[in-house]
Amino acid sequence: MEGDIFSGFSNGTQVDGKVLQTFQKSFVQVQDILDQNRLLINEINQNHESKIPDNLSRNVGLIRELNNNIRRVVDLYADLSSSFTRSMEASSEGDSAGTFKSDGKASQKRIRSG
Asked: Single GO cellular component annotation (predicted)?
């Protein structure tokens, strides 16, 4: 994967390649939206500085588009968070509730319910 951004991320837990692909896809979508927002903000600033009535009127639509894009980014991050939580819960279901520390003593693993 590009730059292998998820290497070391799972801290010993096996993470499904499909899950990683989903994360990668979501991050690419977020970056695309943020790049679009940068262009929108630049255009809004230029229109504002020009003080031309048509350009100022156009800013209304551009600002709406910017706000919608921000909502989309928030939704994507919320979906990512949910997916991450589900994948971590699914991977921990394979672990036993009682594990042994390196010193051989048993310890109880706390499993969070979501």
From this structure: nucleus
Which has the closest alpha carbon to 84: 34, 27, 30, 32? Answer: 27
Residue 74 located in a structural domain: yes
How far is residue 86's CA from residue 83's CA, in Å, rounded to a whole number? 5
Tell me the pLDDT tens digit for each residue of 68-105: 999 999 999 999 999 888 888 877 776 544 444 444 44
Q: Which residues of 1-24 are buried (b: 16+ CB within 10 A; e: fewer)?
A: eeeeeeeeeeeeeebeeebbebbe
Residue range(s) defining the domain that contains residue 59: 48-79
Tell how strand 98-100 and strand 106-108 pair up.
antiparallel
- How many structural domains compose the chain? 1
The alpha helices in 1-114, defined as continuous H runs, are 17-50, 53-93
pLDDT digits (tens, 9 = 90+) for 46-67: 999 999 999 999 999 999 999 9
Residue 63 included in any domain: yes
